[in-house]
């Protein structure tokens, strides 16, 4: 075992964006309105006007600058109004299944997903190795996403030197996409922890059970599997890679153009990253075919379908199997019914609450600091998605220079007005300088976000499961924010490995 000191990690910075500084467009309008109200009695020279104008001005400033759970008052109002409009027009309710319309040309039900996923389509493309690859196509964002099921050896039970080497290899993998001409615009790691249904164990036992086995032994084995199988938990880990069609325009044109050319370019990029994934100790079990990708989506929406699908997939391994092929048809990937509430998302007999990681650890942490988030729980499923957006060198230099200029201007303004500089501001300035030095030395810069979801099939267990998740997040040094008014969007980002979750960068003045 190595005796070297374990390496720690830190330096995450929150992204600052808004119409003016940290103010949104509505917040800026509220500030302007408050200033007009304050100037009105001065211009009129009337105390009566002051008594009339000052109270509403104070209310406008409170709405603009007040913060509750990380959001300003005007943002809460916009969320509430949008949610109430959706409820009044029943846009928060989604129905599919038997209610979905059938295509007039094929007679089949089209792929039907709710909310922000309604525009996605699952395409089928050759993977270059004789198989098929499922590609999630977003025609609005012009992106193509492939999803792989992966395994990894973990970090908890190895020495610090190998921990550092694996983390550095993963950093090198991400750095490889921080180039100006990289067509890969998003990489996401998704992991979910769920109770083990025991279907694979039962299927293997049925195939290998001797015909003359004693009845008492068979009964004891069956009882043991029924008791121990469902008590176990399993983890599924997925890696999604998203290609931008506009960035790969010339390559797509050279590959034939259209969706066929885009899929060919995406497959070429996947083959090129194979060695980098191996260096990071990540083993690709399979790049998901359309039916396998649809099954991952389906089991997230309907946890009760996990047992049935796992049993059928295990039985399909038998040489004489005559039933359906493994997986789910893409048109059946979505839920039959889904409903978005203010703080929860109900889908096919399950309830999910989604959270955004609002603040990363302020202190340096070890490589295993996220481990408590996916502790096995018998009463709930947990999902974690970490979404990375690589930034090219030119844009990274501009963004970091802009952030540094903002901080320097704020420091000089405070110094002129006689205000003391807080320790938090000093620490942020040091992080910004260290990040700029690392960029200049050849390191990559990425935007990232993390979203979590907890899913239960018993509504009475939901608040307990949420409390346990928040406690484990606090143990990891994370500050979570419940995604009030946007639970369907949070579910799409946190519970599904489709590369959702990072909005476009908004640059403030």
UniProtKB/TrEMBL annotation:
Keywords: Membrane, Transmembrane, Transmembrane helix. Residues 397-422 are annotated as: Disordered. Residues 397-411 have a biased composition (Basic and acidic residues). The chain crosses the membrane at residues 20-40, 47-69. This is PrgI family protein. Coiled coil: none annotated. It comes from the Bacteria.
